[in-house]
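Sample 1 of the test manifest.
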Amino acid sequence: QSALTQPPSASGSPGQSVTISCTGTSSDVGGYNYVSWYQQHPGKAPKLMIYEVTKRPSGVPDRFSGSKSGNTASLTVSGLQAEDEADYYCSSYAGSDSVVFGGGTKLTVL
Amino acid sequence: EVQLVESGGGLVQAGRSLRVSCTASGFNFGDYAMSWLRQAPGKGLEWVGFIKSRTYGATTEYAASVEGRFTISRDDSKSIAYLQLNSLKTEDTAVYYCGRVPRPNKYYFNYWGRGTLVTVSS
């Protein structure tokens, strides 16, 4: 499977909103509602932020939201805070019990 | 509290083998599918493979990049998942993470360990 496509970087000022895109195909993102998003701070393990396109695990602030249109999923971070600065990865089910990740987006809070 | 602790990483020569482990605590390990994922230095995340729970036959699935070289197994009596890495290549150098799949037929990972570094030298 080919990796999903994410922009390498994104940025916003505190309090602003930023959206990160994740583009796949009809065989992964577009074909299933199994898109998830992970946050990773330097040197740390990834943390699940969004699953099944729009759902937030307990403890994840509602500033984080997910959506999908066709073959592109998006993560929106509203009310940006300094601690949101991290790398963000999308992933999707890709059929036949396989998972594919995006290349990651470095979010900078200006 | 759910905890996953990877161990067994280290420096190994290309072509050789290594086994890494993921020791779980804080939940009934046997009820959950487990996955291995990796991250090469400075690179993104890559899914390596799954092992389902024994209820679902403990079947395994692998990414094409490791199929035939890596094997995932589990010992439910010890709450450990294993990743056997054979015929290692320099491009297998990465931090290897284990992740817990929250429910059957779900394709995301709600708990991760801190990872173990495998370095393959030429």
